[in-house]
């Protein structure tokens, strides 16, 4: 009997020990993974990272990675290639061999810390696809801190050349650029608008000569309006002239709105920013709970749903995946997660399912930093489009979802990188001071046409290049490695 | 002399009248004004509920004050940047979605927090009312206050800011911004 009690006590102690281990990441501990495998890494010079964009450039694959500003401890990390302290900007990395990424260039951004500096956003288009551009050029559109959008020619990614700057703005952020038309939906704060972020639409088909088309936002945000100001924009995604829709996401972690807009009416309709003119191109809105925002609104139109295959109607559905952004450390807010909306009947969009990482699966509220979703991959390359989605989930790493039945999304893999000496702390206020913990903060994710998955860390841990294994690989229809 | 003594007694009595009743500092606002806590009157939204108070007596008599913390809602470096930000965040829209600013705002300070205050006309239940929105920042977090009533907006603003400077309120504000 006594022996049984001892055994039970030992089991409880052991279980407690592993639980504590799971709550805290330690340097030297291996990554946590299921059906995802690490292929290569780069430390990104210890810079806090936001948007990665992977571009097939000639016979090379180049990763352009936007950065937030520096930290209180290291406002301007040293670029070992120049030996100089440089404000965070854009990292340019050759990932042709994903097992051995080669850092090519750091292009400094705006001086400033955290969200106030850096060059968070980046999109890339080939000159040969833009209607009026230099066909030999490759154009990188990026934000410059909060105050400008810039276009660089990165045909030689080691030596980018500045082409255009659109300045005098505030709170620039997550823009979208149609590479086949050149139409760009630039997220900015125009000085006279009542919201921190709205859309400035430009024709960038000739990046050297930007043509302003119009400003756009929700009625109540325009100059001269009064009363309550609707939730600010986070970012749009356009389906281009073929789909003729732009899906705007408003809000980050509160009061989210999915707005479905007729692209043609948006671009050719009356442009004066009056309430009526702003309403004109709108097809519908899906207001979300006050608890959640819409960081990313990723359209997946005309999806065949196997469950509905025998139905007389509605065999295919138009789906928009909405990803919220967690803002506060250690679960200091309502859970931010992933939502799927069926927008097949466009004027009656409806939320149909959701996904979150189970907190108890890793005691993520105790690990430190943010826990919750932030962003998804935005590549529409066939390798994963309408089959799998990858969600950056801060201290829960990246999550691979089988979305073939968007009414029942299912997690099929995950990867939580190991922390390193470079991983920055995350703190919360406590009585008389603050308490800090160190945890991975997987911030953004993107995929390339080959099927590699690129995740970057907000807490300075760098870039991790991953591939699927096991059952997750089968979901995507990828061959066995 | 006798009047002064009465005032002192009144001040002591108000000061000892418990949670939710607070004496105002001297200025244009009469000393007899105090704030009594009431129930938070608004439905649930994205932010946790705050606290509500009604002014009794003095130049803010009848005014209602709503205060709450909004954590993670502020530019960590820049703080409350402009009047548009006050329009967006100060909870005036909880009272009514139809409001218009009457003038540019002004810089205000409560304890260690800096921010801006702005005055508004409200279109509310067919009656004209004045309101003041206050937005203050502490690092990446906001503390907001909205005061509304039929009285003078300047007097309401002054009374509200003095009230927020009391020890009890400063202690609560710190705790609310800490997430407690």
Helix-strand blueprint:
The complex is a heterodimer of chains A (481) and B (180).
Chain A: H1 2-23, E1 32-34, E2 36-42, E3 49-57, E4 60-67, E5 78-79, E6 84-85, E7 90-94, E8 102-107, E9 122-126, E10 138-144, E11 148-153, E12 161-166, E13 176-177, E14 183-188, E15 198-203, E16 211-216, E17 233-238, H2 240-243, E18 245-250, E19 257-262, H3 263-268, H4 275-279, E20 282-287, E21 296-304, E22 316-323, E23 338-342, E24 350-355, H5 364-367, E25 371-376, E26 388-394, E27 398-402, E28 410-416, E29 425-430, E30 433-438, E31 442-447, E32 453-457, E33 463-468, H6 470-475
Antiparallel strand pairs in A: 1-28, 2-33, 3-4, 4-7, 5-6, 7-8, 9-10, 10-11, 11-12, 13-14, 14-15, 15-16, 17-18, 18-19, 19-20, 21-22, 22-23, 23-24, 25-26, 26-27, 27-28, 29-30, 31-32, 32-33
Chain B: H1 2-15, E1 34-38, E2 51-56, E3 64-70, H2 83-89, H3 92-95, E4 99-101, E5 106-110, E6 113-124, E7 127-138, E8 141-149, H4 153-164, H5 167-177
Antiparallel strand pairs in B: 1-2, 2-3, 3-8, 4-6, 5-6, 6-7, 7-8
How would you describe this protein?
The complex is a heterodimer of chains A (481) and B (180). Chain A is mainly beta and 481 residues long. Chain A has a single domain, classed as Methylamine Dehydrogenase, Chain H, CATH 2.130.10.10. Chain A has helices at 2-23, 240-243, 263-268, 275-279, 364-367, 470-475, and strands spanning 32-34, 36-42, 49-57, 60-67, 78-79, 84-85, 90-94, 102-107, 122-126, 138-144, 148-153, 161-166, 176-177, 183-188, 198-203, 211-216, 233-238, 245-250, 257-262, 282-287, 296-304, 316-323, 338-342, 350-355, 371-376, 388-394, 398-402, 410-416, 425-430, 433-438, 442-447, 453-457, 463-468. In chain A, the strands form 9 sheets. In chain A, strands 1-28-27-26-25 form a 5-stranded antiparallel sheet. In chain A, strand 23 and strand 24 form a beta hairpin. Chain B is an alpha+beta fold and 180 residues long. Chain B has a single domain (2-177), classed as Mog1/PsbP, alpha/beta/alpha sandwich (Protein Transport Mog1p, Chain A, 3-Layer(aba) Sandwich). Chain B has helices at residues 2-15, 83-89, 92-95, 153-164, 167-177; strands at residues 34-38, 51-56, 64-70, 99-101, 106-110, 113-124, 127-138, 141-149. In chain B, strands 1, 2, 3, 4, 5, 6, 7 and 8 form an 8-stranded antiparallel sheet that branches. Chain B is globular and about 40 Å long. Residues 1-21 and 23-27 of chain B have low confidence and may be disordered. Chain A binds chain B through residues 112-116, 170, 193-196, 226-229, 232, 253-255, 289-291, 327-328, 332-334, 428-431, and chain B through 44-47, 71-73, 75-78, 81, 84-85, 87-88, 92-93, 97-101, 177-180.
